[in-house]
Amino acid sequence: MLIKKNKTVRLFIILLLITIALGMTYVGSQQMKPSSKENQLTMNNKEQFVCSMHPEIIKDEPGDCPICGMSLIEKIELDKNSVDSLLNDVVCPVNESVLGSVTTVSPLYAEIPVIIEASGIINYDPRKIRSVSARFGGLVEKSFVKYQFQPIRKGQKIYEIYCPDIYLRNWNYVKMIQMYPDQDNLTVEAREWLSLQGLTKEQVESLKRTVKPDYHLAVYSDADGYAVSADFDPQTYSEGSNQSTGGFLGFNEGLTIETGTQLFKVLDIKSLRIDLKVRTEDIGLLQKGQKVIFTVAGSSGQKIKATISQIDPLNGGLFQLVKVFFKDNESILLPGRQIQAQIQVDIHESLWIPRTALVNLGQHQSVFVMHDGKFMATAIKTGLRSGDNIEILSGIDQNTKIAINALLLTDSDGLIFTNSQ
């Protein structure tokens, strides 16, 4: 009985050990077996290759796309991408801010002498252009003035003419001088009339010694200058028209002329008029007599001082015309040339920024204002311009920091969105 009981105990112990052994084996096998999640991760970590043109083509090894023949590229899962937090400044709307290391400056409230810059063109003074007309009719026997811009001097003989009518119609004046050669009080009227006809004092005096007047008369210039054709227009000449600066005047020998016929014009090349274009918004600051300084191109910075002579009425355009009449005794300026000028105006107290800080972005005048390390294009309203400074009317204040060189922050007007403050 005891032996049977011992066998039962041994069998139970053996079965228990077998059960324990089987349990440990099962647990070990479960620990070695990957979970479904781990299995999925292992599959996802496997390299795959995809076509950039046909994303439905996916292979486990490099090769070519069976559709387009392009080389397959490695497929990168989204969670493998790393995003740098610094990119937040870049990926914000590119038309609202600009990144850059540009020197900044704040607007300055100060009193600055306003200097208005203007460009212009040198012209002849039309008030000093003389018209030479025939004071008596006849036949031009000889002409000494033939070419455009031919220089002539006062007292120079300019032409000879055969004109019998000058004496025949007023023979009484000639006879009066011949009858009373030494009594000037009786011949005053005759002398004045002959002088008005263009006769010189010597020609009038010669009538005292002449029984029969000489119908061949010489005509002399009464002014210095340059001869130009009768239809010469200084305005169109200064604007670069096709008016010739050479060639004949058309005042030729053998020409029959009548009393009052315009023969040619004489320019005073030392009397000039400078026409300046000034912005309409600046014209209210100008007045007659203000100082103007001209810079002559090609003269090593030589400057000429003058004053405003005339301001034309407003015409509603972008620019107004300011005229400066100038006597160029040293013959420095040449008509037809362009010239730069600075007009000195009174001191003006306001808020100013450097001209380089301003940029034109389409319909707005703008500056780049610094915000949190970025520059934002901000619309402003400007006023006067004085040299390298521009007046600020609204949009920014003295505490604003702006880029000192706005052009470095933009390469295309259409890419920058302008904020209005």
Main β-sheet: number of strands, strand sense, barrel status?
A: 12 strands, mixed
Structural class by sheet pairing and helices = alpha+beta
Q: Based on DSSP secondary structure assignment, what is the total number of beta strands? A: 25
Q: What's the pLDDT, averaged over the residues?
A: 77
Radius of gyration, rounded?
49 Å
Name the helicity range. Answer: 10-25%
Poorly predicted regions: 36-43, 79-91
- Number of self-contained structural domains: 5
Shape: elongated
Beta-strand share of residues: 25-35%
Alpha plus pi helix count = 7
Instruction: State the distance separating the first and last CA atoms.
Output: 110 Å
What does this molecule look like?
This protein is an alpha+beta fold and 421 residues long. It folds into five domains: 32 residues; 43 residues, no CATH class; 81 residues, conserved putative lor/sdh protein from methanococcus maripaludis s2 fold; 87 residues, Beta Barrel (Elongation Factor Tu (Ef-tu), domain 3); 136 residues, no CATH class. The longest helix has 31 residues.
Structural descriptors:
alpha+beta, 17% helix, 421 residues, single chain, 7 helices, 34% strand, four-stranded antiparallel β-sheet, twelve-stranded mixed β-sheet, conserved putative lor/sdh protein from methanococcus maripaludis s2 fold, 5 domains
What's the structural blueprint in terms of helices and strands?
Layout: H1 2-32, H2 36-44, E1 49-50, E2 58-59, E3 73-74, E4 104-105, E5 108-124, E6 130-133, E7 138-143, E8 150-152, E9 157-162, H3 165-168, H4 171-179, H5 188-196, H6 201-206, E10 216-220, E11 225-228, H7 234-238, E12 256-257, E13 262-267, E14 271-279, E15 291-295, E16 303-307, E17 310-311, E18 319-327, E19 338-354, E20 359-361, E21 364-371, E22 374-386, E23 389-394, E24 402-403, E25 419-420
